[in-house]
Amino acid sequence: MSHFSHLFKVSRAVFITITFIFVITWLSKSLKELGLGVILKKSSWDTDSYTPLTVNIDYVEENLLTLDQTDAQLITYTRIRHLTPPSQLPYALDGPLDNPSHFADNFSIWVSKFFHNKRNGIFIEAGAHKGENPSHSLMLELGLNWTGLLVECNPTLLPILKKRHRKAWIADVCLAPNQHPGINNFFNPTKWSATGKLETAMNKRSRNDKVMDEVRSIPLYTLIAAIGWKEIDYFALDVEGAEWEILQTIPFHLLTIKVNLPM
């Protein structure tokens, strides 16, 4: 009886341990989904300048439109809700992977010459479209091993962009024309397309323009701080009229941008 009693105690201890691990795993996942104290861990794509932080998602969402772009809670929230890390999957492009020049445009050619074919650079492409033809950064990524941030809020184009499996972060928002997040009208004369525009104080829609949707806008600095970068080699800004307002939001004492090319 003592032998069976010992086996029963061991089995019970194993069962309790497994149950405890399961409950902790489930609880952690549930808390993350509910936004009740999310703690981010570093991944292989993180930089040393990013520090994981517990974020109160309810607080951020209730105060979203008033938080400054440098707010630590907002930065961590942005990383959780609006950033997709570089894909680890093989590219899914229409063009030939073994010929990066196929994806070149005048801007990426100029940038590669300006930096003397620098490798491992960092780009930002706002208005990333489908991520391929047109793209102002894909040649640099394929040919010179650059990475970066692709910003695209168009709900028609965004799923296509993500399916390309680019080796760059993707932000599913527009760049804010202010130093705090916003909710902005996205408009177009006819339908969702590459010529969709963000309505701002200086970029007004005409009577014939149709509002397609309301989109969330996040300041550029908030997005970059959420990744952990402090220096950008090349910024391609192609946002159909809101360029000047977006550039005015950038705190250049906190961030270095070597080349900025408004399209």
Mind explaining what this structure looks like?
Helix 8 links the parallel strand 11 and strand 12. With 263 residues, the chain is an alpha/beta fold. It is globular and about 50 Å long.
Describe the SSE topology.
Layout: H1 2-34, E1 36-38, E2 55-56, H2 57-62, H3 72-82, E3 83-84, H4 106-114, E4 122-126, H5 138-144, E5 147-151, H6 158-163, E6 169-171, E7 174-175, E8 182-188, E9 197-198, E10 210-218, H7 220-227, E11 231-237, H8 243-248, E12 256-262
Parallel strand pairs: 4-5, 4-11, 5-6, 7-10, 11-12
Antiparallel strand pairs: 1-2, 3-6, 8-9, 8-10
Helix pairs in contact: 3-7
Topology order in helix (H) and strand (E) letters:
HEEHHEHEHEHEEEEEHEHE
* Largest sheet data: 6 strands, mixed
Tally of helical runs: 8
- Give the strand content: 15-25%
Keywords:
single chain; 8 helices; four-stranded mixed β-sheet; FkbM_mtfrase; 12 strands; six-stranded mixed β-sheet; SAM-dependent_MTases_sf; alpha/beta; 263 residues
Short structural summary:
With 263 residues, the chain is α/β, with parallel strands linked by helices.
